Amino acid sequence: MRILMLHNRYQSPSGEESVVQAEQTLLESRGHTVKVLEVDNREIEGVFNKAKAAINVVYSPSSKRLVENAILQFKPEIVHVHNFFPLLSPSVHFACNEAGIPLVQTLHNYRLLCAIASLYRDGRVCEDCLGKPFGWSSVIHKCYRSSSIGSAAVAAMSSIHRWLGTWSERVDAYICLTEFAREKFIQGGLPANKLFVKPNFVYPSQVSKTTQTSFGDELYALYVGRLYEEKGINTLLAAWKQLNGKIKLKILGDGPLFQQVREEIRHIPGVELLGKQPSERVYQLMANAQFVVVPSEWYETFGLVLIESFSVGTPVVASKIGALAELINPGQNGLQFRPGDAEDLAAKIKWALAHPEELAQMGQKAYADFNEKYTPERNYHQLIDIYKNVLAHL
């Protein structure tokens, strides 16, 4: 099968880039021919280019021509859109339709429903624009890059293409990463019969888990992720203040709150900020952690960190929200706490520390869940089934 993938890269590296690369590698390893057509948001760093991007975000003629040429040269059987925003724009949907090529789109975030793509604003979950004809609230609150004009452009893109039927008629199948995300997109007006659930996957790491039988000074919990407010980093630090050194915490990642976190942990016993680390180092730290903490306070569409942790047999303590609530089976492969509740998080960690045997069993179940649901082999069959279903209904 010949597959053309379209992806608009972000200015800061994201999990989406990892997913695109992983799916390309997976398909090519099974004998398929894959071409990835990428554009990069760094192209809009200048003032003029940003203004141009705002105009073209609704429909970019140049991006349409780019995709038309790629279709003519590569002759794909199917096009898989990962991220079209902002440079590619929905014009790529028209290019595929006019060429008679079926289009599959992965919904990595909530961009079709929300200008900021996260359903999160001012420190809380926000559904003000969900299912509305136009996202006026996003314009009022300047949700997209603190700009009313930029927010209006994104809201217009979503609204105009809903009215034109782009989302309902020009996409043959959507891939949602969890049932939770699927339900949100149905609430937002996407056709339920075109929404398929296929989780992300990771390639198993070759690192081994060091045998540990009891808790001690050398043992630790781990946070891996961007240092953003919506990721729950403030809740995490507040919980560790309450724990007062009962277990160490290693924080891996970078982001706008890096300096704030570095300053705050000076006053919290046992917390270490390691910044961004190479992949193998991350996996080794995951494998030897007692548990990984995922304290997100927004509707994660998935949670790559969870399945990375599962892949090395480490249980996860996660907030009960969005996709995380779906991926964690409390008491089986991890624990859950109320999102934004540092006291509840601290209580769950104290329980884990007091029940090492149960925690070890959760790690074993997490590893079993990975092998059952999140391996490349399992994911390949799910992805190909979606492609075949689309091709069968041409």
Overview of this protein structure:
The protein is α/β, with parallel strands linked by helices and 394 residues long. It has 2 domains: 2-201 and 376-392, Glycogen Phosphorylase B (Rossmann fold, 3-Layer(aba) Sandwich); 220-373, Glycogen Phosphorylase B (Rossmann fold), CATH 3.40.50. It is built from 16 helices and 14 strands. The chain has helices spanning 15-29, 47-56, 61-74, 91-98, 136-140, 148-164, 166-169, 179-187, 233-243, 258-264, 279-288, 304-311, 322-327, 342-354, 356-373, 376-392, and strands spanning 2-9, 33-40, 78-83, 103-106, 120-121, 124-125, 173-176, 195-197, 220-224, 248-252, 271-275, 291-294, 316-319, 334-337. Strands 2-1-3-4-7-8 form a 6-stranded parallel beta sheet, with helices on both faces. The protein has a 6-stranded parallel beta sheet with strand order 11-10-9-12-13-14, with helices on both faces. Helix 3 packs parallel to helix 4 (91-98) and helix 9 (233-243) crosses helix 14 (342-354). The radius of gyration is 22 Å and the shape is globular.
